[in-house]
Design brief:
The structure is a single chain. The chain is of the alpha+beta class. The chain has a single domain, classed as paralog of FGE (formylglycine-generating enzyme) (Alpha-Beta Complex), CATH 3.90.1580.10. It is 11% helix and 17% strand. A 4-stranded mixed beta sheet has the order 9-8-7-10. A 3-stranded antiparallel beta sheet has the order 1-4-11. It has a two-stranded antiparallel ribbon with strand order 2-3.
C-alpha cells in the first residue's frame, strides 16, 4: 500500500465537490520538490509563506485572553535537513534558522474554541460544507468540521485536550496571528523536531513502537490505518507520549496529527508544507524529514497545527 497517507491519485478516485460544476479537488498530492530555503522565517507574507491579512486594531487577542499555551525556546542553528535514506524530495541540505519559540504542544480543541468564541471565526471546512475524513481513502464528508471531525454525527465532547483538526492552513494562520504568533516555517519545524543531531525521529534513531513504551500515537505498521494499540484509535490528548520529546522538550512532533507550516513547495506554490505524520501513518511517515503538502483552504481529520513566535528583544 502506498506509504503516503495524504495522497490521492486521480486515476484511483475522484473526490467531488459539493457544488455542481466545481472541479474535483484532491486533498494532497505526492511530489518531488526542491528544499525550502533557510531564509523562510515566516515573519512576512510573500513567496514561500502563507499570506495573513493585515490585522486591524482590536483583531488581536485582548490581554484577558492571553494565549495559555507553553512556548519552548529553540536556540536556532545550522543543521542538515533531509534524510539520505528517505524519499527523493528529502535530499540532505544545510539549512540555518534563527532562535525562535515553538508551542510545546499542538493547539487543542479547547484553545481553538476560545479563539472561535472571541472572534466568530468560521473555518474553511464550515464555510465549504465539509472536510476530508480518512477511511482507507480520503472522503469529502458533508458536515465534517472542527466540532464534528468525522462528520455531523461525530463530536469533540470529552476531547477538549485533543488536537484540533479539520482546520485549514488559513484557519491555523488566523489563530496564530490573533495571539500575536505565527506558523513555523518548514525549516524551523524540522530543526525543532530533530535538532542538529540528525535524529531520524524526535527521540532518536529507533522507530516508534520498537521500545517497551510508546513514543507516539500512530497507525498500523503497514500503512495506512488507525491503530488502538497505543491506546487511541484516532487523536490522543496532546502530550500523552512524553518519551517522544524532541531535543528541545517539544512533544507530538511525530504522530497524533500532521501540522501545517508557513512554507510553500517551491515547485507547487499552491500547496502548503505539512510535517509530522498522524494517527493513521506508519513509522516511515513519522520521520523528522518526511514532508507533504496540501492546499491551504481545506480541512482534514488528521491535520492540526502549533504556533511559533520570534523571541522578544
Amino acid at each position: 500500500m502506498n506509504r503516503i497517507l495524504l495522497f490521492l491519485a486521480a486515476s484511483v478516485l475522484a473526490v467531488f465537490a459539493f457544488t455542481a460544476g466545481v472541479a474535483p479537488r484532491h486533498p494532497a498530492v505526492g511530489m518531488a520538490a526542491e528544499w525550502v530555503g533557510s531564509d523562510l522565517t515566516g515573519k512576512t507574507p510573500g513567496p514561500g509563506r502563507i499570506d495573513v491579512p493585515e490585522l486591524r486594531a482590536g483583531d488581536r487577542a485582548p490581554a484577558a485572553l492571553k494565549f495559555d499555551g507553553a512556548m519552548s525556546p529553540v536556540p536556532g542553528g545550522t543543521f542538515v535537513m533531509g534524510d539520505d535514506e528517505g524519499d527523493a524530495n528529502e535530499i540532505p541540505k544545510l539549512a540555518t534558522v534563527k532562535p525562535f519559540l515553538l508551542m510545546r504542544l499542538e493547539v487543542t480543541n479547547r484553545q481553538f474554541s476560545t479563539f472561535v468564541a472571541a472572534t466568530g471565526h468560521r473555518t474553511d471546512a464550515a464555510k465549504s460544507g465539509g472536510g476530508y475524513v480518512w477511511d482507507q481513502t480520503w472522503r469529502l464528508v458533508p458536515g465534517a468540521d472542527w466540532r464534528h471531525p468525522n462528520g455531523i454525527a461525530s463530536s469533540i465532547v470529552d476531547k477538549s485536550n485533543h488536537p484540533v483538526v479539520q482546520v485549514s492552513a488559513q484557519d491555523a494562520a488566523a489563530f496564530c496571528a490573533w495571539y500575536g504568533l505565527r506558523l513555523p516555517s518548514e525549516a524551523e519545524w524540522e530543526f525543532a523536531a530533530r535538532g542538529a543531531e540528525r535524529r531520524r525521529y524526535p527521540w532518536g534513531r529507533s522507530p516508534p513502537g520498537s521500545q517497551t513504551q510508546r513514543q507516539a500515537n500512530f497507525g498500523t505498521t503497514e500503512c495506512c490505518s488507525p491503530d488502538a494499540t497505543d491506546g487511541y484509535w484516532r487523536t490522543a490528548p496532546v502530550g500523552a507520549f512524553p518519551l517522544g520529546a524532541s531535543p528541545f522538550g517539544i512533544l507530538d512532533m511525530a504522530g497524533n496529527v500532521w501540522e501545517w507550516t508557513s512554507s510553500r513547495f517551491p515547485e507547487r506554490p499552491q500547496l502548503m508544507v505539512l510535517r509530522g505524520g498522524g494517527w493513521g501513518n506508519d513509522p516511515y511517515c513519522l520521520r523528522t524529514a518526511y514532508r507533504h503538502g496540501n492546499e491551504p483552504d481545506i480541512g482534514l481529520d488528521m491535520v492540526g497545527f502549533r504556533c511559533a513566535a520570534d523571541p522578544k528583544p
